């Protein structure tokens, strides 16, 4: 079984609480309150800045040039592609870059991003890629599922662009590379004894993703 599938199976309920969160259901059927989505968009901009720093650690921790180059592509996918699309989406929702940058981080944003950075600083490249993976791969899986349902691409769904962005080929390719990277690193340094510790990292990142959705709902009330 692929390393990512093993981690998902081991994290069980934490994976489901993240990928099947009420916020996600609201994106899928278009019933998510607009204020919750705006809160989420602003915090996600701040999240992506910190997440790029976390990904950049993978360049530093690379064992080989191939590791460093693939991590560099990951950083570029965030800074040059995902953030660009994000700023365009924010503009369509009336959120300017000035407003995004002037907003302080919510606790959920700080907690999640600093957990990933700390995991990368303390551990090795496999620890770091495991901590990054619920974010990178989880959104690809969520968006694929939402896009496959008629409500996910219905013209009246205000979140169809968000869904299409993450269900699109460019993001799906980024997620496929992240899955392959886990297999590559796993073949080199994953032992049965180590798997428990990696599952703890993965499950904590899933819980922090669920908290991030919840922050969108709670802080927009
Ligand atoms: C919180 C969060 N998690 C994941 C992603 C997808 N890279 C994101 N943009 N924001």
TrEMBL record:
Reaction catalysis annotation: 4-amino-5-aminomethyl-2-methylpyrimidine + H2O = 4-amino-5-hydroxymethyl-2-methylpyrimidine + NH4(+); thiamine + H2O = 5-(2-hydroxyethyl)-4-methylthiazole + 4-amino-5-hydroxymethyl-2-methylpyrimidine + H(+)
Annotated Gene Ontology cellular component terms: cytosol
Keywords: Hydrolase, Thiamine biosynthesis
Pfam families membership: TENA_THI-4
PANTHER family assigned to the protein according to its UniProt record, in alphabetical order: BIFUNCTIONAL TH2 PROTEIN (PTHR43198), SI:CH1073-67J19.1-RELATED (PTHR43198:SF2)
Biological processes, Gene Ontology terms: thiamine biosynthetic process
Protein name (Swiss-Prot/TrEMBL): Aminopyrimidine aminohydrolase
Keyword Hydrolase set for record: yes
Function: Catalyzes an amino-pyrimidine hydrolysis reaction at the C5' of the pyrimidine moiety of thiamine compounds, a reaction that is part of a thiamine salvage pathway.
SUPFAM superfamilies on file: Heme oxygenase-like
Listed pathway(s): Cofactor biosynthesis; thiamine diphosphate biosynthesis
Origin superkingdom: Bacteria
Stated family: Belongs to the TenA family.
GO MF, one example: thiaminase activity
Designated gene of the protein: tenA
Residue stretches making up the Thiaminase-2/PQQC domain: 15-218
The keyword Transcription belongs to this UniProt entry's keyword annotation: no
InterPro entries: Haem_Oase-like_multi-hlx, Thiaminase-2/PQQC, Thiaminase_II, Thiamine_Salvage_TenA
Organism: Methylobrevis albus
E.C. numbers: 3.5.99.2
């Amino acid at each position: 079984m692929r390393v990512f599938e093993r981690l998902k199976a081991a994290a069980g309920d934490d994976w489901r609480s993240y990928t099947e969160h009420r916020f996600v259901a609201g994106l899928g059927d278009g019933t998510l309150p607009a204020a919750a989505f705006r809160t989420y968009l602003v915090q996600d901009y701040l999240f992506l800045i910190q997440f790029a720093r976390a990904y950049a650690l993978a360049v530093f921790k690379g064992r080989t040039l191939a590791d460093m180059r693939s991590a560099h592509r990951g950083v570029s996918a965030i800074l040059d592609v995902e953030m660009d699309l994000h700023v365009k989406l924010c503009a369509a929702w009336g959120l300017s870059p000035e407003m995004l940058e002037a907003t302080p981080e919510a606790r959920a944003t700080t907690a999640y991003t600093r957990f990933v950075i700390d995991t990368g600083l303390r551990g090795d490249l496999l620890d770091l890629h495991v901590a990054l993976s619920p974010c990178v791969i989880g959104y690809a899986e969520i968006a694929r599922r939402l896009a496959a349902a008629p409500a996910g691409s219905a013209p009246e769904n205000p979140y169809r662009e968000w869904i299409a962005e993450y269900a699109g080929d460019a993001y799906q390719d980024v997620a496929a590379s992240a899955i392959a990277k886990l297999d590559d690193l796993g073949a080199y340094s994953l032992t049965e004894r180590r798997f428990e510790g990696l599952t703890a990292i993965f499950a904590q990142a899933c819980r922090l993703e669920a908290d991030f959705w919840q922050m969108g709902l709670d802080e927009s009330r």
